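About this split. The held-out portion is used to measure sequence recovery: a designer receives only the structure tokens and must propose an amino acid at every position. Recovery is the fraction of positions where the proposal matches the reference. Here is one held-out target exactly as it appears in the evaluation file.
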């Protein structure tokens, strides 16, 4: 399966360390959950990004992706100064932006 553009841009912005482009991949009222730590709206996503993503110099690589019931389930390999390894991300899209991201 081809990776949808909003998810591709999410990965590219993370890897480039481009916070503005990263935040632009999310809707204004986005929801992000990282192993039960919940972040609401774009300002919450920005806090998570600073502590756990670009702020931790993360580099992402999609291992595989599939769509089920309107949700894109991606297995992602992560390296950086925080979590290193593979994990699962479930993306719900709203047009060309991410409305919800659940990391588990």
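Reference sequence for scoring:
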């Amino acid at each position: 399966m081809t990776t949808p553009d909003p998810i591709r841009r999410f990965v590219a912005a993370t890897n480039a360390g481009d916070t503005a482009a990263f935040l632009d991949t999310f809707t204004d009222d986005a929801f992000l959950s990282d192993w039960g730590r919940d972040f609401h709206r774009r300002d919450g996503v920005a806090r998570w990004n600073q502590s756990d993503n670009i702020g931790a110099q993360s580099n992402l690589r999609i291992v595989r992706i599939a769509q089920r019931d309107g949700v894109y389930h991606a297995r992602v390999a992560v390296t950086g100064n925080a979590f290193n390894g593979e994990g699962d991300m479930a993306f719900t899209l709203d047009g060309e932006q991410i409305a919800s991201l659940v990391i588990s």
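Annotator remark: The domain at 5-103 is CATH 3.10.450.50 (Nuclear Transport Factor 2; Chain: A,).
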